[in-house]
Amino acid sequence: MDPSELEFLAEKETVTVIPNFAHGKLCLIRGDVGPFTPSIPVQVPLWMAVNLRQRQKCRILPPDWLCVEKLEEIKQEEMDSAFFTPMPSEHYKEITRLLFDFLGS
């Protein structure tokens, strides 16, 4: 697969956002999201989180596995193991790049 296809697949993963707007539940093909209430965390697909962030409608919370302590723990686990250590997400590289692009802005 090329990078754009991998990014497309990664955008289906869910992340937590804190919206700054109110809206009812949205019915999407892959399932319902919401309702959106200001300052109340809600799980949405990554593509929606990025879109809302671009419009300054939410704050994206990074996944638990993206904190330094958890990454150090995974690194140590991989160094100690003779076998491959599973990554925290199937598309961790693409998710991380997208989040760093939009969390910084």
TrEMBL record:
Signal peptide: none annotated. This is DNA replication complex GINS protein PSF2 like protein. Keywords: DNA replication, Nucleus. GO terms for cellular component: GINS complex. It is found in: Nucleus. GO terms for biological process: DNA replication; double-strand break repair via break-induced replication. The keyword Nucleus applies. Residues 2-61 form the DNA replication complex GINS protein PSF2 N-terminal domain. Belongs to the GINS2/PSF2 family. PANTHER family: DNA REPLICATION COMPLEX GINS PROTEIN PSF2. It comes from Argiope bruennichi.
